[in-house]
Amino acid sequence: MPDTEVHGPIDYVLLEFTGNKLTGRTAEELVNLVERGIVNVYDVMVVGKDVNDSIYMVDLAESSGEGGGFAALNGARTGILDEDDLREVAGAMQPGTLAALIVYENTWAIPFVAAALESGGQMIAGGRIPAQDVMDVLDAMEALESTS
User: Fold this and answer.
1) Would you say residue 141 has pLDDT above 90?
2) Which residues contact 130 (CB under 8 A, 6 or more apart)?
3) How many beta carbons lie within 10 A of that of residue 104, not counting itself?
4) Fewer beta carbons within 10 angstroms: which end of the chain, N or C?
């Protein structure tokens, strides 16, 4: 094992919810992933944008319903997310919505990363293909096969 602490890939996701509300289901599933050791959440920021384009932060510690269940992740504050991120999130949002910005580590990958490092490997590139793009390609392939 390398002398340095091994981490899995760190990702972020920005989820926008219409109707300016969260149901809690998303947060519930994220907590489930944390409890199962699949991810480690570093930061959660919930931002609202009213119909007049005014932005506001949702205080997860004090949110009863507006935080959509993310109060369980209130302690996820490493400082990775800051005011600049708030502005970027707001710029991407539609009026009358809430958005959750989540920074998380893929802890399931730590043994794989450790093995690569032990073998002298290092990551030289990485990326993410949006799930919808993959589903579109698979659907197109399936449609093509069904007409053959």
Assistant:
1) yes
2) none
3) 22
4) C
| CA atoms of 26 and 29, how far apart (whole Å) | 5
CA distance 121 to 98: 41
Mean pLDDT of 15-35: 85
Cα of first residue to Cα of last residue in the chain, in angstroms, is 51
Q: How confident is the model at residue 63 (pLDDT cuts 50, 70, 90)?
A: low
pLDDT band at 59 (very low <50, low <70, confident <90, very high): confident
Say if residues 6 and 110 touch (Cβ distance below 8 Å). Answer: yes
Largest CA distance in the chain: 58
Does residue 78 have a pLDDT over 60?
A: yes
- Smallest CA-to-CA distance from 69 within 17, 10, 104 is with 17
Q: What single letter denotes the amino acid at residue 103?
A: V
Residue whose tokens read 């579109």: 136
Whole-model pTM: value is: 0.80
Give the contacts of 141 (CB within 8 A, at least 6 positions apart). none
DSSP for 122-140 reads ---------HHHHHHHHHH
Nearest Cα residue to 99 out of 11, 9, 15: 15
Which stretches of the chain are assigned E, i.e. beta strand?
A: 10-18, 40-49, 55-57, 97-105
